[in-house]
Input
Amino acid sequence: VMCGWDDEFLLFLWEVSWKKQKRGMSMKAEQKWKGGQGKLQKKVKKSVGLGICVFLTLLLVSQLHYEKRIQKFVLRNEEELTEFTKNYLAVEQRERRHMFEEWKEENGYSVQLTGLFPEDVVAFYMGGFGLAPSSVYYGFYYSPEDIPVGTGEGQLVKAEGDNAGWSWQGYGDNGGEIRKIKPHWYYYKCWF
Output
């Protein structure tokens, strides 16, 4: 025994010092791991946030193009659409759905009939988004009298401006906009 310390005591000091050193290393490793976890979580949160922003931006931009897409569709297919709508209005109510399904399949159109408007017009649904009670619908309709019509929920009011159309305000936050595409054909946007 050197210095008068016994081997057991030296061994004890060595173990204590080794455990302290080991605990310090494991605490540093744990802190490093937690720091990495935090950084990863921040990156994931930023990525998810950015993804949501991009999705909402694309959704908004796609909604801005509905009117142009609908106008192009009507102008490109006006002859077939006009022929169909005149025939559709000439048949009895119970035959209309079948007639529409045949016509749609024959022409490959991705439109749906809608019951939003009075029966004396033929209204087509082209798209929309949202869940009730905040949904938006886009489409077009054929008016045999060439008169703009609303859903019957509010009075149509002529808007002012270059690209003026009509608008209506219904119950609560329900409303809509209508623009003339060409004689007898109208674009609509409704929200409920």
